[in-house]
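step: validate -> pass
step: tokenize input -> pass
step: predict -> running
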Amino acid sequence: MLRKISLTAASAVAVLGMVGAPEASAGAVVGTPAAVAQSVPSAARAADDLAPGPHHRVLDSLVGTWKATKTNYLLGTDGQPVVSRDMTVKVRWIAKTGGRFLEEKTEGTLGDITYFRLGVLGFSTIDRRYEWTTFDSVTPTAMTYRGAPVSGSPSVLSIPGEFTDPGVLGPDYRGKAIPMRTVITIRSKNKHTFDLYFTPPGQSERLVDRVVYTRKIK
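step: predict -> pass
step: emit ->
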């Protein structure tokens, strides 16, 4: 039984390796030693493309325990934002995903209420883009962002998305699709910022939330 399973797995790898492989030369027959050997480099390249790489390493600076100061421009009154200075953020690579995704947990208060946020940040090696999704104790929907393809090792990540407004922009916008954008600026290994922008229909993009992270040094 074990040998049968191993053969099945090997066959699957061989098939995956042949997807996108160079066309077989004239006279080569699929299944011959030459054809199998030809598929091996493709399989290796596919494995490299799926594994965490340099774009994941850009996010290493975000790992750790942080003191966060959150400034929210939607919840304030008389033009004054709500500022929270008691937030603690813990960020780690999720080992069971093979180190492909970061988990962020934020706890503290926002105004006079208890605040919690769970975020997952990663880089899609297939789409060549950063992806960011959050779930919190204030917003009744997942906030999902998908960036444009990137290259190099950026220190500023601009990741757009869209959400259905539950009324945070006012009753006139309730139920409407609102474009949004998170900008992550990695300033150093000990400091970074998350800026959230909304673009209400018929209006210019505006900053609605800023979080400044400072590493807690033991």
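step: describe -> Confidence is low (pLDDT under 50) at residues 1-37.
step: cleanup -> pass
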